[in-house]
Design a protein that fits this description.
The complex is a heterodimer of chains A (788) and B (226). Chain A is α/β, with parallel strands linked by helices and 788 residues long. Chain A has 30 helices and 23 strands. Chain A is 47% helix and 13% strand. Classes of the chains: A alpha/beta (788), B alpha+beta (226).
């Protein structure tokens, strides 16, 4: 017997709760169940046998927490514990057809960005488990709540074994996991990665899981698994409230809806499994193939491509001086700001291209994908010409992305399509090949056809192929405009594929580009464009898409349109003094938190005043004044930061002006700042950063949980004379001390200031810091002292 | 757990205090931002909690919780639970979406981030208050001590991991600890409440029994919740 053969059966039955049985046998709360694999094999064998006798076709090994993190203090290796578990299971299944599933639960630490565990480390942890469990018949990842964690697990299993894979995640009543992962997101992602069966386990009883299961069945044609709890536990007695017969009754409803694989989780015992098996014995599993909606997703957002969806084009250095500089500086915040701005502008998917010859594109892409996913729900379109960069991005991406792009050349197809298949993404196919972009629509259509056929050969589903018929510049190739539109139309209607188009190129070299762009966009939409790649911050572009949706009756009752344009513009933080108050000063704007005015006044001043005079005689004195008021307790931290943000806007205007005049930019010296290793409390350090930047310092922000060596490297690289370290926990003060020690060992000519709630001036001195900074304001005073 | 906790508002006085306002109130403009951000935060928080009640015994190496491997060490917790026969362990979180909202604002609007951070601190305490009420309703006839946080006094912060395991906190509400014992998601709290049939003195927290007394950043109002 093997798993695929078993799936040919009618229904498939799993076992019930393991923890429940172990606790009945006297396992202490908080005890380590996996130790029993070695200490009490008979108990495990007997529990497995009870489930086999109850009718389980598959039993789970007692290895839910058998990972290197959770087992660290047990004195036993993961390999030892897993091998013992499998040995026990093998003994139990002797003489039966029952299969053994290597059971794998969550690691027990949250992955980045909520926790500190990097994806790559999670992968290694799962890899060790999978290798140790190679003797099992299949592997099951269960009770998962983080889509990225289960992705790491599935990749580890796929790349280190040939075992079939079952995946179940744990959903709450709101149809989401604790980390916010939705049902469609799970199904789209895990089916793409090649799981053999997916479903739900734990958290709720079968009745409450019903809507989750219904949703899951809508999003996959894989066999669906349910392994619910025996209802909900009583808070005082801890007893579960659904008995075996009632439990089985709900399972009949699940079977009617299309569930294939049944088991039980917390609170269930062999009686539950035999009740389910018994009640389903005369029922027939009917497989009904459903049409799954075309969609891409992040962990928490699914974008269904059943109407035009906006792809934001701004995360791309092509032709953007500031973006290029940001990439060279490794300024992730700059990219994140672009992401936030575009989603506010109406982007539903974000294209991410960080290609620049001067940088390590692969490393930058990984950082960019991880960071962007940490702050926005929008699915991403991963954009690079280098297959290794794309694969690196595909690995760490959480959800189902789009790959941009492949073209009609064989080399491109053979390099990229295997990645699309392996990681289950969608892909954009450009209708060009070695001879360039064909002039005629028919010829572009032919390339589209070739791309599609090749994708199908690789086992990629048709709906995951999107075609870009390519926009040519109207000023240079006027006749080409109609050909592009016609090609879009043909691909859409004759091939039935979704279409993508970068729009802005159309107007290159013409005056009033915006008018051309949105007119072309409207024409393309009418010809069947699904995914316009545009600048969503440009209101006439996103507005055209919104208006199109309204006019085509997609936006029912004009709801979204009205919502988008009836919104109150701006909030109090970005308020402006208004037109009647046009003669306010920069100082006034800073003091009163008038962000828009701050930038406007600075721009006006730059016409007549030297930039450095604005900085030294207006900006900094105004900030100093705010700092003084803060120190005296006349204003409070939020007001100080509000002033700082106005100054930031003013600074941005100055920097932009200087960079346009190619004069030297404002820089009073480099400061490296970091929240030390092990610590995640970032806000204090970020406040310090805002203030320091406003005084003209170039702040190199290394983020949180920073390795000691990374601080040393940055100080060397930027020749920084001042380092700021932050720690908020007594447990991470030691990291602060170690960082300082390493800086000293490297004989670096830099001073160190430290801050954080648990620090005292004495302690700061004790660990070798040069300065203790009690708040953000004081860090500026220190910087002035050190750097001037 | 038995009852869903929802917050309809967040305590603005507490929020202002976390922001450093001691005896002054935020001005009109700042209040407006606070009210706006309160709404943003209320949209994303999803309060989750788990608690369990155990019989306790005072042993040589610390306080033992019956049926578990957990031992609570140190003098502070011993003193805190003196006279108690039972203890409730609880963990609450505002969930990981809160972290994301904070992260996003730290990138593009520091003022909002700062205010959201303070609001979240106030919110998590409100959730704790509500859980405490639920525990009270299940333990009629018992007097409660104030909530003693894990890591407070000389109760080692390294207790965090086994404390969470005892509550199955990851499975129940998605809370874990990092290697440095920081709770994730960030806006989460673990604490211990002593339950006694007798009358006990430490039913509410005061600045006198706080070891941060001298350098309290929150104006020593006696209700800081850290």
């Amino acid at each position: 017997m093997n798993f695929n053969k078993l799936l040919e059966n009618n229904f498939v039955f799993l076992d019930g709760g393991m923890g429940t049985m172990l606790q009945k046998s006297g396992l202490q709360i908080g005890g380590v169940p996996e130790l029993l694999n070695l200490e009490n094999p008979e108990l495990l064998i007997s529990i497995h046998r009870q489930y086999i006798e109850a009718g389980a076709d598959i039993i789970y090994t007692n290895t839910f927490g058998a990972n290197s993190y959770k087992m660290a203090d047990t004195g036993h290796s993961v390999k030892e514990l897993i091998e013992a578990a499998i040995k026990n299971a093998k003994k139990a299944v002797e003489g039966t057809d029952t299969l053994i599933a290597l059971d794998v639960g969550p690691i027990g630490q949250l992955l980045e960005p909520t926790g500190l565990l990097p994806f790559e480390k999670a992968y290694d942890i799962f890899k060790e488990i999978v290798l140790a469990g190679s003797e099992a018949d299949l592997v099951v990842f269960e009770t998962m709540t983080d889509l990225l964690e289960i992705k790491a697990a599935v990749l580890a299993a796929k790349e280190n074994s040939n075992l079939p894979i079952m995946c179940t995640m744990t959903f709450e009543k709101n149809m989401r996991t604790f980390t916010g992962c939705g049902v469609s997101n799970m199904a789209l992602t895990l089916e793409g990665l090649g799981a053999d069966a997916i479903g739900v386990n734990c958290s709720l009883g079968p009745d409450e899981l019903m809507p989750v299961v219904e949703e899951m069945l809508n999003w996959t044609n894989l066999p669906v698994i349910v392994k619910p709890n025996a209802g909900l536990p009583d808070p005082v007695t801890n007893e579960y409230n659904i008995l075996p017969d009632e439990f089985a009754g709900y399972m009949v409803q699940m079977a009617d809806k299309g569930v294939k694989i049944f088991g039980g989780c917390c609170g269930t015992t062999p009686e539950y499994i035999s009740a389910v098996k018994n009640i389903l014995k005369d029922k027939k599993y009917v497989k009904e193939l459903k049409e799954i909606l075309v969609a891409v997703c992040s962990s928490s957002e699914t974008v269904i491509i059943n109407q035009p969806r906006i792809i934001g084009e701004r995360i791309n250095p092509t032709g953007k001086k500031k973006f290029k500089e940001a990439l060279i500086r490794h300024d992730i915040d700059y990219i994140l700001n672009q992401a936030i701005e575009q989603t506010h502008g109406g982007a539903e998917i974000l294209d991410v291209n960080v290609g620049l010859p001067e940088i390590d594109e692969k490393a930058m892409m990984i950082d960019a994908v991880k960071s962007i996913q940490g702050i926005t729900d929008a699915p991403l379109q991963l954009d690079s010409t280098i297959p290794e960069v794309l694969e690196a991005a595909l690995r760490v991406y959480c959800g189902k992305p789009i790959i941009n792009s492949v073209n009609g050349e064989d080399e491109s197809l053979n390099n990229i399509l295997p990645l699309v298949k392996k990681y289950g993404s969608s892909v954009v196919g450009l209708t060009l090949d070695k001879d360039g972009i064909p002039k005629k629509a028919e010829d572009r259509f032919k390339i589209a056809q070739k791309i599609l056929n090749k994708a199908l050969e690789y086992g990629i589903k048709k709906e995951n192929v999107f075609i870009d018929c390519l926009t040519l510049t109207a000023s240079a190739e006027q006749d080409g405009v109609v050909e592009t539109l016609q090609a879009v139309n043909m691909v859409k209607t004759k091939l039935g594929l979704k279409t993508v188009l970068g729009v802005s190129n159309i107007s290159f070299g013409l005056p009033n580009r915006e008018r051309i762009n949105h007119t072309f966009l409207a024409l393309a939409l009418e010809n069947g464009l699904d995914l316009p790649i545009i600048n969503p911050n440009n209101q006439s572009m996103s507005g055209t898409v919104r208006a199109f949706r309204l006019l085509k009756g997609i936006d029912k009752n004009s709801k979204e349109y009205i919502e988008a344009y009836n919104k109150e513009q701006g909030n109090a933080a970005a308020k402006s003094a208004g037109e009647e108050n046009n003669n306010i000063t920069l100082e006034y704007a800073i003091e009163n938190g008038l962000k828009n005015d701050g930038a406007r006044i600075t721009k006006e001043m730059l016409e007549t005043t030297d930039a450095m005079i604005i900085v030294n005689e207006h900006l900094i004195p105004a900030l100093d004044k705010a700092g003084d008021l803060f120190e005296k307790g006349k204003i409070f931290l939020p007001q100080l930061i509000l002033s700082a943000e106005v100054a930031q806007a003013a600074f941005a205007a100055i920097k932009e002006y200087m960079s346009s005049k190619s004069t030297e930019t404002v820089n009073k010296g480099e400061i490296v700042i970091a929240t030390v290793k092990g610590d995640v409390h970032d806000i204090g350090k970020n406040i310090v950063k805002v203030l320091l930047e406003n005084y003209g310092y170039n702040v190199i922000d290394l983020g949180k949980d920073v390795e000691y060596q990374a601080v040393v490297d940055a100080v060397k690289k930027y020749n920084a004379k001042l380092v700021g370290l932050s720690a908020l926990m007594t447990t991470t003060l030691v990291s602060m001390e170690n960082t300082i020690k390493l800086l000293r060992e490297n004989n670096l000519d830099c001073q160190v200031m430290v801050g954080g709630a648990v620090l005292t001036p004495d302690y700061a001195k004790q660990i070798g810091a040069d300065f203790y900074s009690k708040d953000a304001k004081e860090s500026v005073d220190i910087a002035k002292k050190v750097l001037g | 757990m038995d009852e869903i906790i929802e917050l309809k508002y967040i305590d603005k006085c507490e929020t202002a205090r976390y922001l450093g306002y001691k005896d002054t109130l935020p001005d009109v403009e700042m209040t407006k931002i606070i009210l706006e951000q309160e709404q943003e935060l209320l949209k994303v928080i999803r309060p989750q909690y788990v608690y369990k009640i155990f019989d306790i015994s005072f042993e040589e190496d610390g306080i033992h919780l019956k049926g578990t491997n957990l031992v609570l060490k140190g003098n502070s917790i011993k003193e805190h639970l003196s006279g108690c026969k039972k203890a409730a362990l609880m963990c609450v979180t505002l969930s990981s979406d809160t972290d994301r909202l904070l992260r996003t604002n730290e990138i593009n609007n520091m003022v909002n981030a700062l205010i959201l951070d303070a609001l979240a601190n106030a919110a998590v305490e409100q959730v704790c208050d509500k859980v405490e009420k639920i525990i009270e309703s299940h333990t009629k006839g018992y007097t409660h001590t104030w909530r003693f946080g894990v890591g407070y006094g000389d109760l080692p912060i390294t207790t965090q991991k086994s404390f969470l395991d005892t509550l199955s906190a990851q499975k129940q509400i998605g809370v874990c600890a990092t290697d440095s014992c920081i709770l994730t998601p960030r806006k989460s709290v673990t604490c211990i409440i002593g339950l006694s049939k007798e009358k006990i003195s430490n039913t509410s927290r005061s600045c006198d029994n706080c070891n941060l007394n001298a350098k309290c950043p929150y104006g020593r109002t006696g209700k800081c919740g850290i």
